[in-house]
Amino acid sequence: MKRWLSFLLVLVLAIGLAACGSQGAGNEGEESTTAAVGESVDYEIIGIDPGAGIMKATAKAIEDYGLEDWTLIEGSGAAMTAALKKAYDKEEPIIITGWTPHWKFVKFDLKYLEDPKGVYGDEENIHTITRNGLVEDHPNAVKVLDQFHWTADDMSTVMVMIEEGTKEEEAAAKWVEENAEKVAEWTAGAEKVDGDKITLAYVAWASEIASTNVLAKVLTDLGYDVTMTQLEAGPLWAGIADGSADASVAAWLPVTHADYAAEFEGKFEDLGSNMEGTRIGLVVPSYMDINSIEDLK
Q: C-alpha angle 160/255/49, rounded to 5°?
């Protein structure tokens, strides 16, 4: 009997220790899962141009969420999407700075990471801005710029065509031809001109390449001699402010380009939004088992 009782006691102790061990392993597993996300991407977030507002917001997110081990990689929109495609094709993990509208959300199954601290703000709008005095110099162009307004679906159509190999100006011309009614709303009341020169500035984002090419086509059809100038965000705003560029339909407000709008206040005209409901944030493929920026800690 004593042997039997001793055996039972040993068995109970063994079960108890096993249970404790399992519980500890569970906590350790949760920590290792979080660590594994970082390790799987080398604790890197793939960004874009260093001057872009989304890069500043991401640097703030790294600070606010306590992600001291993480590095924000500077590059370009093209480099970011190339890295995304490479990882996605192999179903490998990747974390990027993302925004909508963008063709990548059409091509790939992606999701935004939740931002409980609100670092990236709410929905944004894309604004049309012009240099001071443009309305006096080119009233017909300003009328078109002021009436220019389209949707994310419109823009995505152009972006996808370009991504699939259509030349930028050809994609824009095709969209303009197929959306004559909408274009007529933009040009209502605007008279044709004879070779008046106008310069449109834009950043090298797929979204702004699409919108600027479409607007350039519309203004060209009205008789304008249009020059498109690709710049980073800071020089773009500076160009509008000093008059070396006439207009841009690529101003993301109130978050992405907030610093530039404040820096050049009074030195540009804001014609209002040409698209509503855009968004910025951290983006991952949907196959990644992560849902919040908090999960990166």
A: 55
Whole-number pLDDT of residue 34 = 53
- Closest to 282 measured CA to CA, from 123, 112, 116: 112
Partner residues linked to 131 by β-bridges? 268
**Which H or E run contains 83?**
helix 77-89
Q: What pLDDT is recorded for position 36?
A: 81
- Residue 45: strand pairing partners: 72
C-alpha–C-alpha distance, residues 194 and 223, integer Å: 5
Residue ranges and CATH numbers for the domains of the chain are 40-122+282-296 (3.40.190.100), 124-277 (3.10.105.10)
Residue pLDDT, tens place only, 253-294? 988 899 999 999 999 999 999 999 888 999 999 999 999 999
CA distances from 36 to 2, 33, 46, 90 (A): 50, 5, 17, 18
List pLDDT tens digits, range 285-297: 999 999 999 999 8
| 271: enclosing H helix or E strand | strand 268-285
End-to-end CA, the chain: 55
Cβ(18)–Cβ(63) below 8 Å: no
d(CA 33, CA 38): 9
**How many Cα atoms within 13 Å fall on the side-chain side of residue 257?**
26
